[in-house]
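About this split. The held-out portion is used to measure sequence recovery: a designer receives only the structure tokens and must propose an amino acid at every position. Recovery is the fraction of positions where the proposal matches the reference. Here is one held-out target exactly as it appears in the evaluation file.
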């Protein structure tokens, strides 16, 4: 095991201790991390780590979602680690780039994890994303700007996201987690 993997191993252990119902998912993430030293590189064809965020309003009542241009669905901001093993930093970078919201701050450790298959597209083969998600809170200024990766952005009440069957299951799971924590 590489020394540089220890912070993520510790963070996943803390997450497992908080969310006992997700032990199998954590085990899957830990095995992938330990078996693939280049798992933070996009070029790792089998799959790679990504960082994303649950970007909440200053009061925590709303979440900012983006309508992803390539995938044509509403998702949370996030993206590839591109070699950065600090996935909280990756999530912050992606939140800033994809939303333009200023004054953001990361709160706490890992909030959610999700492993999902990415379909083949162009020269890119089908692969797995091991997505590690963090809570990022907006300051009072919640203005956003749409970037080329999105069709739209929208602040949505967390209570609505939790019950909206048209949204990705992992978004609904994060909404339920957030509501349970408040």
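Reference sequence for scoring:
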């Amino acid at each position: 095991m590489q020394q540089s993997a220890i912070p993520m191993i510790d963070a996943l252990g803390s997450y497992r201790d908080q969310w006992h119902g997700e032990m199998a998912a954590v085990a899957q993430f830990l095995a992938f991390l330990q078996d693939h030293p280049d798992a933070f590189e996009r070029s790792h064809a089998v799959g790679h780590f990504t960082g994303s965020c649950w970007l909440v309003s200053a009061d925590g009542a709303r979440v900012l979602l983006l309508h992803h241009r390539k995938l044509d669905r509403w998702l949370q901001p996030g993206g590839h680690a591109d070699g950065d093993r600090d996935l909280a930093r990756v999530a912050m970078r992606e939140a800033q780039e994809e939303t333009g919201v200023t004054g953001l701050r990361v709160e706490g450790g890992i909030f959610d994890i999700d492993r999902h298959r990415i379909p083949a597209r162009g020269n890119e083969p089908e692969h797995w994303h091991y997505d590690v998600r963090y809570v990022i809170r907006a300051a009072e200024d919640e203005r956003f700007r749409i970037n080329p990766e999105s069709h739209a952005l929208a602040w949505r009440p967390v209570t609505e996201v939790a019950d909206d069957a048209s949204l990705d299951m992992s978004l609904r799971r994060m909404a339920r987690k957030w509501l349970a924590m408040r």
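Annotator remark: Residues 6-18 form the longest helix (13 residues).
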